């Protein structure tokens, strides 16, 4: 089990939004979306080349070039990453209908690694002592693309309009 204190995230520079490229710096907007999103999806590659999608609730920003998540109950994802470290992560704020697709290379960290203790501490503080952290996965993020709902393009909706509409659809506010 990973143990240690959380190290604060250092200041991050803003990249060009919606651009592909290498060496992308994780922006404050990306951090905000990750922190708001409670469920993200990680894609890895199975032995037969088929995609494997795994829901994650522990994706966090480690620093301006790396994301991290805890291996709570994902032995298949871990096996895939040890054999083929390519990874994609989709993070979407379901109310604003926007987010980011991150791509990069993953590294499975053992429980003694400081980054593993960092995410394990966050996991315990967020979910209590009963949720395990078997490993951590550190992602060197090399690509980031903004994801936008077609409502922004075709309906010319604004983020506040979409947030209100989806909060109403989910029964979170009165229409």
UniProtKB/TrEMBL annotation:
Domain of life where this protein originates: Bacteria
Record-linked InterPro entries: Pyridox_Oxase_N, Split_barrel_FMN-bd
Region called Disordered, residue ranges: 1-26
Skewed-composition ranges (Basic residues): 11-20
Coiled coil: none
Domain Pyridoxamine 5'-phosphate oxidase N-terminal: 32-117
Gene3D superfamilies named in the record: Electron Transport, Fmn-binding Protein, Chain A
One Pfam family this sequence matches: PNPOx_N
Xref: SUPFAM superfamilies: FMN-binding split barrel
Name of the protein described by the UniProt record: Pyridoxamine 5'-phosphate oxidase family protein
Record organism: Mycolicibacterium diernhoferi
